[in-house]
Amino acid sequence: MNVLIAESVKKTYGTGEHAVKALKDISFTIEQGEFTAIVGTSGSGKSTLLNLLGGLDTPTSGRICIRNHDLAGLDRKSLTIFRRRNIGFVFQNYSLMPVLNVYDNVALPVTFDRGKHIDHVYIRDLLTELGLWEKRKKYPNELSGGQQQRVALARALANKPAIILADEPTGNLDTGTTVEVMGLLKSSSRKYNQTILMVTHNESIAQTCDRIIHIEDGKILRDSGADVKKGGEQ
């Protein structure tokens, strides 16, 4: 089942001679439970793509669908609600609320969504799975970088989203903690059949994912998932 479809996506900033083509005709699909890395050098367009997939920006042309919803067809309020319910974000800088403890940070996306009941059992299980239950009353400044990133991952999973978008989630972490966080992402993907799309510039990290999409100069250079699908069709 396809969770995400990107179809002929283009993004241009500016006009005329000042126009910058950040993305040039990007197309791919992501299936349920797939853990995909988007790899590219700085300025290749990978972060621009992640922002478009997350509904934080709009493409100049093309179509992005998540769970059969075309993001361009949603008004601002509907998009905000859809994003909150269907997309989890994990950022390099964690983006935790300093005035909230671990438990309340994790429950925050559900708290914002008044139409959804907080599943306290699920959140407790998440925190236990990620080794955070005993830290649930601690505040972000009382945690290590790896622990903060685990809280960010738990928060992204709290709403049981269609897809998690992770932007360089290990960028600020040491080698040992990087291995730990990648292990947690992979185990979360398997346990919850969670679809994860991760931007990274680190090839060795990308190699641990199910699929790698290489982007250079705003275009897809290689897609290991496409190679597998072609091979399966022969």
TrEMBL record:
Keywords of this entry: ATP-binding, Nucleotide-binding, Transport
GO MF assignments: ATP binding; ATP hydrolysis activity; transmembrane transporter activity
Domain ABC transporter stretches: 4-234
Any single GO CC term annotated in Swiss-Prot or TrEMBL for this entry: membrane protein complex
Classification via Pfam families: ABC_tran
Similarity comment: Belongs to the ABC transporter superfamily.
Protein name as annotated: ABC transporter ATP-binding protein
The organism of origin for this protein: Blautia argi
